[in-house]
Amino acid sequence: MTDDLVAALRPLLTAEASAEAHACGAEAGDLEQAVWLRLLERLDSDGPPVDPPGWLRRAVRSEARRSRRTTRRERPYESEPADESAGDPEHLALAAARRRALREAVRRLPGRCPRLVEALLSPEDLTYREIAGELGISQGSLGPERSRCLGCLRRLLTPEVAARSARG
């Protein structure tokens, strides 16, 4: 029964979707897919529609209205959000070099700063409570110690950054 219904409705759906697509700014194929999905959901829950051609026409128009509403709400980005240049080998190598320089500078920090900064940089995204427990210090002293360590790290990295950009 379902195969017969789909075969009978296919030409009508193609025509209706093609007629509505341009006006709503959607692709006819997208409208068709949305209506087929609606039909399958309906068949699963309520069974076949009483008037399949009428139901199909209403479903196409409904999907076209939904597409128009969505298109009206969408706004283009001011600039391209994806940085296409970030995937090229040069940028990847530079990013890796920056990460290495950062890790080397972190290892040169005094006291327990290397462990603290490594915990802050951890991909596990540790909480202050977890970091404090790992370092054996109170959670309240973690903020001031973090500030002191980051200040040291900034002073270590500033000459390297200045030296690199001077060559540029």
SSE topology sketch:
Blueprint: H1 2-24, H2 28-45, H3 52-73, H4 89-107, H5 113-121, H6 128-135, H7 139-167
Helix pairs in contact: 1-2, 1-3, 2-3, 5-7
Quick overview of this protein structure:
The protein is mainly alpha-helical. Helices cover 76% and strands 0% of the residues.
Features:
7 helices; 168 residues; 76% helix; mainly alpha
Helix content: over 70%
| Terminal CA distance | 72 Å
Rg, Cα atoms, Å: 30 Å
Task: Spell the H/E element sequence.
Answer: HHHHHHH
Strand content: under 5%
Structural overview:
This protein has helices spanning 2-24, 28-45, 52-73, 89-107, 113-121, 128-135, 139-167. With 168 residues, the protein is an all-alpha fold. The longest helix has 29 residues, at 139-167. The mean pLDDT is 84.
